[in-house]
Specification:
disordered N terminus, about 100 residues
């Protein structure tokens, strides 16, 4: 039985959740990329805007792939840019954020 709480997208279905006292210690935690962070209590479920600003200030170059429409190939373009930069020995990270604003009817 899972007592899963809010956590990362990649947490397994058997995860007790990062807020549980069993986090990172159960059999279902084996192989989870978040196991160490959960078991030590270092897993953060919320990041403040100031934490994001500090982290991004350490990134020398940022590329934004943006469109106001879905299905136009943003993820494909992002992956190709990242792949080509990495092939040239640049250190690359990708953040995929879905921002949904209000819809007008």
């Amino acid at each position: 039985v899972s007592t899963q709480s809010t956590g990362p997208d990649n947490m397994p279905a058997s995860c007790p959740g990062p807020a549980s006292e069993e986090a990172g210690k159960m059999d279902g935690c084996a192989g989870c990329p978040n196991k160490q962070a959960c078991s030590t209590g270092k897993f953060k479920t919320d990041t403040s805007p100031s934490d994001v600003a500090i982290a991004l200030s350490k990134v020398k170059h940022k590329i934004l792939v943006l469109s106001g429409k879905g299905g136009v190939g943003k993820s494909t373009v992002t992956a190709q840019i990242a792949r080509n930069l990495a092939a040239r020995d640049y250190s690359v990270g990708v953040v995929d954020v879905d921002v949904c604003g209000p819809s007008l009817a």
